[in-house]
Amino acid sequence: MQSPSQRRPYDRESSALHPEIALHRQLATTSMEVYFSIDRSELLYSRLAAESPFVAQVQVQVGDTTWFLLDTAWNDTPSVLRAQWTATPRELPTWVDIQVTDVLRNTAWQERRLVGSTEALGANDILAWSQSEAWPLAGSHASAGDTLLLHLPQALPPEGPLSGLWSVLQVEPPAGLPPPPFSGSRPRWDTLTSRLLGELKADSLLVLVVPEGATVLECEANNLRRIFFAHDAHFPELASAESLVAPTRYIASRAEHQRMKEADHPKLALDEFWLACGDSPDHARELLETYYGRVEEANHAFSGLVEGWKSDRGMVHIVFGVPQRVRRDSWNEYWTYGEEGTSNALTFHFRRKANPWDNGHFVLQRSMQYRSLWDRAVSNWRNGRVRAD
Question: What pLDDT digit, counting tens, does each position of 238-276 carry?
């Protein structure tokens, strides 16, 4: 039996907690550095008496080691709670189970993560320290223009530090948006090429400024390769009026979208578009919040070389919402809307496309049978008949 989170893995709102955890193995000392961060607004703060401060209780379990945090909320408390620990298991695991619990709310988040082989170094053993955040990256996403301090993995004695020539390559993201599900055209990723930015000799530390797109760091001698995806500083949110206009292309006509892009006041033009979709300012605001909430969810779930909302899965997620069921294997995803097995069920098939720059690139299997369903979904947006997931 699948749990609701397994059936609907892209329903971000179904989970109250969204922590970020970076793990850095130290093979030479058989220890692991744990970097934990979470937005404090996701935690429940309570107090024992009226004069007592508000306190949250967080339990973090990594493998067989557990830490407890008591966090007090003050007026000047930063929005993000961070903590660092060192785990010293008897032996470093290949896989590690992670669980974060908000004790007062009795809500937990968990995942199983591949740490790496205990016999060989891997790309996950490169710790990427963000200078702008003064904290390590929990994944592969960084802000364009950020400076990363890359702590290179160290081999076990007697080999000591790994030395080699590191190549730095850049891959620019493809332009344009994915065609609709009924289109005969396909996103062109097969023409993407990398550009060599330089080569560096290092055995412990590399300093790298990441441009927009994908930055590839590889050392052929040690068979190590790490890719960083860089987007603007506000990612995964959309901050400017121009960035808010861009995703409306999925439901706006070409002429409407062009007018909003070229308007002297893009924010006013965008407001007029959403007011036309809703029958009242309050309804228009609900539509807007649902639409851009899905855009942000897509950025969290599907981003790689391109922002998540610009991907095939992001396009379907924004227009149709969270699917009732997702079936996955290594190379395929099947999204089902409606009751599975009935004539009213709608299924989209996404297939993973092998790509050297983005292992998470999935391509929708397009078909003309989606034409009427797509038009109906767009019409629902235009007539204000869409409700939150």
Answer: 988 999 999 999 999 999 999 999 999 999 999 999 999
Helices (H), ranges, the chain:
4-7, 241-245, 254-262, 266-277, 281-302, 312-320, 371-382
Cα radius of gyration (the chain): 23
**Looking at residue 329, what DSSP letter applies?**
-
Helix, strand, coil % over all residues of the chain, rounded to 5: 25, 35, 40
Coil, helix or strand for 88? coil
| Total number of domains constituting the chain | 3
Mean pLDDT of 70-99: 90
Strand ranges of the sheet holding 346-352, from the earlier edge strand across to the other edge: 325-328, 332-337, 346-352, 362-364
Contacts of 86 (CB under 8 A, 6+ apart): 31, 32, 33, 34
What is the reported pLDDT for 322? 95
In a domain, 387, yes or no: no
Residues 302-345: tens digit of each pLDDT? 999 999 999 999 999 999 999 999 999 989 999 999 988 787 89
Query: Do 266 and 260 form a contact (C-beta atoms < 8 A)?
Result: yes
Q: Report d(CA 283, CA 274) in Å as an integer.
A: 9
Q: Show the 3-state SS of 8-63.
A: CCCCHHHCCCCCEEEEEEECCCCEEEEEEEEEHHHCCCECCCCCCCEEEEEEEEEC
Q: How far is Cα 285 from Cα 274, in angstroms, rounded to an integer?
A: 8
Asked whether residue 214 carries a pLDDT value surpassing 50, the answer given is yes
Q: Which of 118, 134, 160 is the last residue of a domain?
A: 118
Give pLDDT tens digits for 110-122: 999 988 776 667 7
Q: Which of 362, 373, 303 is nearest to 337 (CA)?
A: 373
Q: Is residue 388 part of a domain?
A: no
Q: What percent of the chain has pLDDT over 70?
A: 95
Q: Does residue 113 contact residue 88 with C-beta atoms inside 8 Å?
A: no
83: domain range?
1-118
- Predicted pLDDT of residue 155: 61
